[in-house]
Structure formats: structure tokens, C-alpha cells
Amino acid sequence: MSDAIRVRFPPSPSGHLHVGGARTALFNWLFARHHGGVFVLRIEDTDRDRSTEESIESILEALRWLDLDWDEGPPAPGYRQTERLEIYRAHAERLLAQGRAYYCDCSPAELDAQRQVAQRRGETFRYSRRCRDRGLTQGALRLRIPAEGETVIQDLIHGPVTFDHSQLDDWILVRSDGGPTYNFCVVVDDVTMRISHVIRGDDHLSNTPKQVLCYQALGYALPEFAHVPMILGPDRSRLSKRHGATSVQAFRDAGVLPQAMVNYLARLGWSHGDQEVFTREELIEYFDLKHVGASGAVFDAAKLEWLSQHWIKQTPSRQLAEAILPFVERAGLRPPGDLDWLARAIDTLKERAKTLVEMVERGRFYLEAPRTWEPRAARELFTPAGLDRLGLLAERLEAVGEFDAEHLEGLYRELAAEGGLKLVDLAQLTRLAVTGGTASPPIFQVLALLGRTETVGRLRAARAAGRVHGAAR
Ligand code: GLU
């Protein structure tokens, strides 16, 4: 493992992990894995009002689901900002002792009044530096930034980005209540965690000059910066809840496989020629920052669905059988004990299902006998003659030697010939009786999977129900 490359993912735990955050995590993880570096997970919980334990748990769970394993981070101690207050304090003291920071006792009311004046003039508020040379010994601690000149960020994605110091001010490092501010913590953490590359959303780009000036005041070398463009909704505004589901958990609960999600997220802003489908190994091999685009990527739900279907098809059915169990339970069905049997049922369903939820819906009849039959088809097929045929089918299926798809098809062909019927009509009658609908995987495979007793029972139940309805007509 090369310790030279160290990246981090530092979520603020104030909700679920969203696709934007997940993509940032993935890019960092891929960058670390590509270079044999270290992926650090840090919890930015200094904002105690907004941070919750449930959010931390939910974010870690989403990362585990995506299989983005971290080399350093919780549960090891020292990776939550609230555990690092001593480190921030020591750095603040150093800046103060070196004259790079100073105390300010301007009251919130005074600052507010100045902010309002600036607003009225249509200017951005910048602190007046009133306390710069007053030699105060308490208050809020501010960073003394060079009044003139500019700071240029050499961004690996955007190229050089220049910020004039006239746009910046002596920002607060530590509030008067002793709480370190967000930007200060990020700098101290990135330095002390020896982060080599800061890869984050470009909504943080405006924080970067402030952070760079703080690195410089502390006398630390800068990391590389790469600001990844935001994910956009179809209307090209920043992706938000307005555009529908955006949390990783929502896609997991919709039955998208994690490999499909990872594949999709990787392509949100990064490309490798025109390749769309990637295994995790390919992503690790090909990922680079050079091919991250500088403009926002549009979230395309249809493409995610397409990849979801692709990865369902690619995944061995035995593996899908395990993955689908929670979805079976959630649909109110009893999960079968025999996973090999479930895998064989999945074999018949996986070509068409876009998500695991859809697969459960399409395959519900495997786990539960129908209690209703599609009314239109029932009117058409459960005629007196049709019901007689169901009786005959039940009898013959009870007696047939081998109950596998091949023998069943043979038997149906015989019966069709005997009765002067089309195979497809008998098959459709059977399908309606045993599945309750008119669309299902190949019917002989379905019957073989249901087994003799279940199949015969369902044929008889449909016949009985058809009689009752027929009599009521
Ligand atoms: N905690 C920040 C966030 O969740 C990330 C800060 C950073 O990457 O520097 O948006």
C-alpha cells in the first residue's frame, strides 16, 4: 500500500447518504484503490445541532452496502471531529502565538448591522478587521489573511481558479464559545491525517481559498485539490429531492444491486471512452481524475434502470437468491428455506426484472398460490369446457411419471392432440390457473418448479373457484 496517496471522505452526518455524496466517496475510494493508497473515512460532526448518531449509522451502512471499505476511520477512535477538539485547540493556539490569528469581540448585533449595510449596497459582507490590532485576549479567533493579492487554486479538474483577496475576509477559526468552525476543522484534519488529495464536490470550491490561506498560515504544504462538478437533475438544476429519490438507501430499497449503483455512479462525471458497463476491477484499473469532466453530469434514472437490469442478469442466481430474501419478506411472502430452489425460480425471472422488487412481484406466484384470477382472462378461459379441461389436466398431471419441464411439455402435446386443441391454449389456461395471470416465465418450467402437489392443488382450486363464479354469472 502506498502511503503517499491518502484521500478522505468526510460526510456531515445530518441525513442519509445521497447520490452526490456516494459518488464523491466512490471517486475517492477508486482513486485510493487505483494508486494503492489509503481511503480515510472521517465524520464531520462539529455541527452538533445537525449531526445525529442515526445519520452516522445510516451513512456507514450505505457505504458498506456499496462495498466502499475504508482503511482508516470509525469505529477506530479519533476519526470524528468531536473527538478531535484538543487538536483544533492546539492549532488555534499556535496561530495566535505566531500572530497569524487574533481575537475579535465584535458582537453578533454589530456584525449583523454591518451585514445589512453591505446587503443594502448590494455588496458581499466582509468583516471590517476592526479588532485586528487591538491585542484582545478573548472573543472569536479570526485568521489574519493578506489584505492584498490573490490565491490561485490549481484544481485538477477545473485548472487554475483565482480568488482575489478582496473577496475574502479574516474568517473565524474558533467561535467565542470555543467551538472550532467547519473550515478550520477541515484544514486541521486534512493536515494531521496527511491527506494528499482533496477530492470533493465543487460546491466546496468557494471554501478552498479560505482553507488554503489557513494551510499557509500554519506553514503546511498544500494537498492537491480536485473539485468534482455537481450532479444535476433533468432540468439541469442541482439534483435534489424535488427530482425524486436521491438517497442511496432509496435505490437499495427499490432493489437495485450495489454493483449497478457503483457502475452508475462511476459514470456520473467520469468516462472511459464510451464504455458504460464496468466491473469493480475495471473501475479500479481505469479510474483517473483526468477523465472527470468539468461540467455537471445529469442524473439519468432510465440509465440506472438499464444498468440495474444488466447487473441482475450478470449476477449468479444463487447470489440473487440471498440478496432477494429481504425483498421477499417485505412483500409479505414467506421466504423459502431452499435457496437452490429459489435460485432456479430466479433463473426463470432474471432476464426481465429491472430491480429485485420487480422480480418479487413477477415471481410472487412461486411463493403464494393465487387467490384471484385476472378477471378478463378468467371470463374467457374458465368456461365450462375450460373448467373440465382443468379437471382433466389435474388428473393427468397427478399421474405423469417425471414432473420436469420436458416431460410436462410432452404430456401437454399429447393432450392437445387428443382434444384437437392448440398447445398454446392449454398452456394459457394452465398459466392463468396456477399463476393468476396471463404472463409468466415458460409455463412448463414454472410447473416443474412448483412441483406436482402444488400444481395439481392449484389447478383444482382454480376449477372450484371458476365453478363458483360461473354459477354466479
Ligand atoms: N463535510 C462536507 C460535506 O459533507 C465535506 C467537506 C470536504 O470534503 O471538505 O459536504
Strand content: 5-15%
Kindly give the count of domains: 4
Supply the number of helical segments. 19
Ranges with pLDDT <50 over ≥5 residues? none
Main sheet overview: 3 strands, antiparallel
What is the fourth-level CATH superfamily of the largest domain?
A: HUPs
Taken in chain order, the helices and strands follow as EHEHHEHEEEEHEHEEHHHEHHHHHHHHHH
Query: Helical amount among residues, as a percent range?
Result: 40-55%
What class would the helix/strand composition place it in? mainly alpha
CATH topology of the largest domain: Rossmann fold
How does the overall form come out from the CA principal axes? Answer: elongated
Give the rounded overall mean pLDDT.
96
From the 3D coordinates, which CATH architecture of the largest domain would you assign? 3-Layer(aba) Sandwich
Q: N-to-C terminal Cα separation, in Å?
A: 76 Å
Strands of the widest sheet, in order across it, are 3-4-7
Compute the CA-based radius of gyration.
32 Å
Task: Report on the architecture of this protein.
- The chain is mostly helical.
- It has helices spanning 19-35, 53-65, 85-97, 108-120, 182-192, 208-218, 248-253, 258-266, 280-286, 301-314, 317-330, 339-347, 356-367, 375-381, 384-399, 405-419, 423-435, 443-450, 452-472; strands at residues 6-9, 38-41, 101-104, 140-143, 150-155, 159-164, 172-174, 197-201, 224-228, 231-232, 297-298.
- Helix 8 (258-266) crosses helix 10 (301-314), helix 11 (317-330) crosses helix 12 (339-347) and helix 15 (384-399) packs across helix 17 (423-435).
- The strands form 5 sheets. The protein has a 3-stranded antiparallel beta sheet. Strands 1-2 form a two-stranded parallel sheet.
- It folds into 4 domains: 6-80 and 231-298, HUPs (Rossmann fold); 84-228, 3-Layer(aba) Sandwich (Rossmann fold), CATH 3.40.50; 315-354, Helicase, Ruva Protein, domain 3, CATH 1.10.8; 375-472, Arc Repressor Mutant, subunit A.
- The chain binds glutamic acid.
